Amino acid sequence: MKIIVLVKHVPDAQFDRHLTGGANTTDRSESILSELDEYALEAALQLIEARGGAAAGNKVIALSMGPAGAVNAVKKSLQIGATEGVHLSDDALAGSDAAATSLALAAAVRHLGADAPVDLILTGMASTDGETSLVPAQLAERLDLAQVTFASWLELDGGKLTARRDGDSHADTIEAELPAVVSVTDQINEPRYPNFKGIMAAKKKTITTLTLADIGVDPAQVGFSGSWTAVEAAEARPPRTAGTIITDEGDAGIKLVEFLAAQKLL
Amino acid sequence: MAKVLVFIDNPGQVLKKASLELLTIARSMGEPAVAFNGELHDDVAATLGEYGAEVLYVPSAADLDDYLVGPKASYLAAAVEASGATVVLTENSAEGREIAARLGIKLGAGVITDVVAVDPDGTAHKSVLAGSYMTTAKATTPVSVLTVKANSITPEPAATAAAPQPVTVELPETATAASARVTARNEKAASGRPDLSEARIVVAGGRGVDGNFGPLEELADVLGAAIGASRAATDAGWIGHDAQVGQTGKTVSPQLYISAGISGAIQQKAGMQTAKVIVAVNKDAESPIFEIADFGVVGDLFKVLPQATEELKKRRG
Ligand SMILES: Cc1cc2nc3c(=O)[nH]c(=O)nc-3n(C[C@H](O)[C@H](O)[C@H](O)COP(=O)(O)OP(=O)(O)OC[C@H]3O[C@@H](n4cnc5c(N)ncnc54)[C@H](O)[C@@H]3O)c2cc1C
Ligand SMILES: Nc1ncnc2c1ncn2[C@@H]1O[C@H](COP(=O)(O)O)[C@@H](O)[C@H]1O
After folding, report:
1. By C-alpha distance, which of B94, B183, B189 is closest to B147?
2. Residue A188: strand, helix, or coil
């Protein structure tokens, strides 16, 4: 079984996050593997472990597209247990929106499937910076594959996939043929941490760097020129500040209502 | 004038407020048309007309709901072609965004999600990085697809009502190829409270409610509020996952968010810090939630909330 897991390198939300430059792109200096992609990686590892693991020839390829630093998201994935890593990096990719990102990732997936077909592409439910959730659906559309998105439970049986998806008004059971693009939520599993053995083993694993030329993508199709949306302006919002804080002395419920009345919220 | 296509998916007996908002925005941009899916009730058709829908498209197939996303995107692409629309508006739900995503690729159209306001020329306004920036963005393509958050605008009916007749859009034969099938659907019981994403007031509870949402529900009922929760509360099984607010739950921007027994972790704040007014009740004065609260009470939610509920009832006589 050959699984590609899409992992994104995103600014750490524990720190202040910024947009920079004339085009208002995300500042990636303090970045980490997107927390939500760890669930996709864990799902992939559980699927191959149930089938004999790497020893039985199963592969979990962590693929990240991004600037030089994004290799760290790949390295971390290898420490957690991915069997190989791929870093798609090219200056022309800077400023790619979801449409351009999905175009480049689709070409990378085709490239990685050239020797042996890919069974499954797993992604996070959203990147913690862009938060659009557009990429998985757009990737599926570009690859002409079924999408099974926001899966909170997943099972494979031969060439068939069954998943559960929780909506607002209903919970659905979804079935699809492989290969498919599957995004998973934080309800699906409990991601593991890299342990010492994993960190040592990762040093021996291969990371392949791919450029646009390697995957046959014209630079004009990606980055700012290939994107279909443009950010025209960005304004930092003043951070929220603390208001009135009181300690309950037996009448805080009444004071709370007085505050709501003063704010004309009743 | 620009043609603006609004996608309305399975409204049931009445149109949601969010759909009325989409129609109101569509009118501010050009001539509204509706691409409808699901059973069309007479009242719904009448309301669509009242809100200015001049054309009403329906799909040639009735089984779009048996598949996930793909065929609905194919239907919308065909409706865009039939209508000559240059703007498509959908709701900002998970499915609305995914349909927009695939439609964007089919049409070569830029997609902008989480939109909170649209200028007549199609420039979209949205906040990014968990509310820390307000940005304006625009599609650079001939057609643009925007997914608009609920509560972005006050819905208003058109000056003159239209009486649109349904026009059938033929689905391409390939519409259901390579699509995942929905093989079982469990409807969830309705709570009788306002929808969390649309509510004007949200009362949310966390680990501090210790399994008992009773005091929050009583307060929510007098305020006409929706109930929200932190992941700690939904993971514990005290309330359904659809009540979760935050990075992996819903993003809400109500007029008032009352947070009780929630510490205010980054992932929780990501879903609620664009609320107009935040009120927090927490035992621990060091809780990070107090850093963003407009009014904070250091106290026991089991004392403070029931007292607030009593006071509200008293004031209302
Ligand atoms: C990938 C990922 C995604 C996540 N997504 C989300 C998300 O979408 N939404 C979300 O909320 N979290 C999310 N989390 C979890 C988040 O990190 C926090 O763990 C969670 O928000 C904590 O919930 P809490 O505030 O209810 O619990 P705690 O942090 O345990 O806080 C409970 C609070 O209740 C107070 N308290 C206790 N008893 C009382 C009382 N009687 N009266 C008043 N106050 C009392 C305590 O002082 C404490 O501050 C996510 C985490 C990860 C890793
Ligand atoms: N640059 C990228 N490199 C690798 N994976 C990505 C990238 N961008 C998005 N993804 C994947 O797509 C998912 C959804 O991202 P988004 O559509 O940006 O919210 C993420 O959780 C990742 O799995």
Report:
1. B94
2. coil
For A245, the 3-state DSSP assignment is strand
CB contact under 8 A, A98 and B101: yes
Task: Give the ligand with the smallest distance to the CA of A90.
Answer: 2
Q: Output the pLDDT for position A252.
A: 98
Q: What is the pTM of this model?
A: 0.94
Task: Select from A215, A147, A223 the least CA-distant residue to A178.
Answer: A147
CA distances (Å), A110 to each of A61, A94, A103, A212, B40, in order? 13, 21, 11, 13, 42
How far apart are the CA of A201 and the nearest CA of chain B, in angstroms?
Answer: 32
What's the token pair of residue B139?
């599609």
ipTM exceeding 0.90?
Answer: yes
Helix (H, G, I), strand (E, B) or coil at B50: helix
Please list the residues that pair with B55 across neighbouring strands.
B33
SS3 letters for B235-278?
HCCCCCHHHEECCCCECCCCCEEEEECCCCCHHHHCCCCCCCEE
Looking at the CA of A63, name the nearest ligand: 2
Token pair of A53 as six digits: 């693991």
pLDDT tens readout for residues B251-281? 999 999 999 999 999 999 999 998 999 999 9
The pair of structure tokens assigned to A145 is 């594959």
**What is the rounded distance in angstroms from the CA atom of residue A34 to the CA atom of residue A121?**
17
Dihedral (Cα; B73, B78, B81, B83), 10-degree rounding = -100
In sequence order, the 6+-apart residues with CB closer than 8 A to the CB of B227 are B191, B193, B196, B202, B203, B204, B205, B213, B216, B217, B220, B239, B243
pLDDT of the residue at B285: 98
With a cut of 50, which residues of chain B have pLDDT below it? none
Distance B207 CA to ligand 1 centre (A): 6
Angle at A106 between CA A217 and CA A140, to 5 degrees: 150
